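Review box. Two proteins, two foldings.
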Amino acid sequence: MNITPWLFGLLAAFLSGSIPFAVLIGHAKGINIRQHGSGNPGATNLGRAVGKKWGLFCFVLDVLKGLLPVLLFGRLIELGVSASPAMQWVSVAVAAVAGHIFSPWLGFKGGKGVATGLGATLGLFPIVTLPGGIAFALWYAVAKLSGYVGLASVIAAASLPVSTFFNAQRLGLTAPQTTVFTLLTATLAALVIFRHRGNLARLRAGIEPKAQWTQRGQ
């Protein structure tokens, strides 16, 4: 089995995910985003520091850096370069999210992986695209109702492998394929939840701040 395309896909996805758009945009606006707000180099914190439109722009870029490498590797699979398409494809998605969370450009300390994870899951068409959309809708609903983006991110991430399992059943995937997609999306979810452990600790302590955009009139 030629694993070279897969290894290249993993590396490309990790490097794509590792691009710290929030930090780059922050520098362009004259600030170090890691010294503002929560210090997290992500779209939400950037939006607090330099404005909502820049936060939204960063969110879109973070989605794309997860989406594009997964879509491109999916195209390679269509061309027949992969002997284990399910496992390799989802592992490329996980690599993109890992690149964002453990960015080598930031001393292996990156963002929390929500936007990049959304892009990566949308790229796994059609098996994880619908679960990714469900997770995003759930994220928005929980964030808007509770005001806590961290809580919404954890709940949305936890829903991903569950909805992936049922969607794989709906699409008629084999048991091994279903297992691969479910376990590897569970790995992706675990990465996101791990990065939100601080938010969970602050929630338990009652000191987690609510996001301004979730409040009425924002």
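Next protein.
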Amino acid sequence: MAEDVFIAQTREGPIAGHVSGSGAPLLLLHGGPALSDYMDMLYPETDGWRSVRYQQRGLTPSAVSGPFTVDRHVADAVAVLDTLGLRRTVVLGHSWGGYLALQLAASHPDRVAGLVLVDPLGAVGDGGVADMGQHLADRMPPAAMARFGMVAARLAGPDPTDADALESLTLLWPGYFADPATAPPVPSAMRTSLEGYRETFASVAEYQASGFSGKLREVQVPSVFVLGERSPMPVSQGEQTAALMPKAEVVLVPGAGHLPWHEQAGCVAAALETIRERAAGPDAAW
């Protein structure tokens, strides 16, 4: 798909992204945090939308420096919208990107017309981080587990590297899918920033402890949670988070993992159509 490049300038450095397609605007927020932007994987699901995706802070061509806080990530998203002249848009977030979408909607309700949250980090407790980590480990074959133990030791040591973090992701990757044995390989261009990952999750923990979940009761836009039935992220996290939001619904995708569009093509497109219908009105951005 043809893409146009843009740069959003912020006080803390540039945020680089791409725009493709035509139709109502759709902001895509990738997971991680501090991973390469992979949201072009979802282009088959976003046909009929003007899709905006960008590399989040931490990796080139965007700024590689922090601060890696929730507030800074939200400000970067707003800077992208401002740069493209988007007053209000539907937001599609996956994993950590779903949590970022919730934060954006809570702090800038005038900029968000609707939400599609695909297997997101939740807003209850630790968001599902510990359970997800355990489920991923349980899905790992013995040989990979032995290697993972060595990588985890390096990550816990005095001099962990981005290469260690990427190897950890590579070992965990099959467990994100409903059937790890048939999982696709990690995208060849995937990179990660250990600093960005750790500092962002530290900021998430602070928000969780301060009662962020209570703010979701004020999010009044139509929202669809698309949850993989066999995802390592507990379905209960999405369900509990959705229950906090007055206009949210849950779609459980059977036989699907953390990237549910992989096993059940069309599940995200269907959620987007639901939001298109419910968000249309005199204040819609399109």
